[in-house]
Predict the structure.
Amino acid sequence: MPKIGKIVVIIGPMFAGKTTRLLKEIQKARKGSRKAVLFKSGIDNRYGESEVVTHDGARLPAMVLPDGERCISVLRKAAKEYDIIGIDEGQFWDNTDGLVEELNRLASNSKSIYISMLNSKAVYIPMLNRKLKGELFDIGYELLACADHIYTLRSKCWKCGRKASFTQRITPWPKSNNMADFVGGAKDYQPICSTCLSKIDNPGL
Ligand SMILES: [Zn+2]
């Protein structure tokens, strides 16, 4: 039977278990002689450059997938050796060099692509009076449009404990245009539900 490629997107707020799900999907897909490779961004060095680590401590070796033009050549090279390609934290790449088109091309060549990503840019910036609920990262629009399967995960609201679909920045935003400065953990970001989000329109609440 011919192998069928696909694009699977795992999307949700922070602390929803996206990376855990990504690792499980890769391990499940890696049956028989199918070889898998896992990529991560060089921007996200929270747990070192050579592995992906979940918030609860599971880990898998990973390689850095550069951004810009080199991203495509690294993916093509990997596709010669691997059948399954995992990408963690997909929001760190943009589509200016045709990443999504390349993922589509690989999927049509029997590769299985698994990619996790944040669903929305973090919300609530009281000092700027801005709220970004519903604003996807650039790559999200194209990726979701071409996904064969989408897993939507939710987390637990840090204010009320109910299911949370969004992420709130709880410390002041970095005064920077550098994406790396925005990377953070539980100290800087928490999951929040729509109801609690709607109550923080006013600065100070
Ligand atoms: Zn809530």
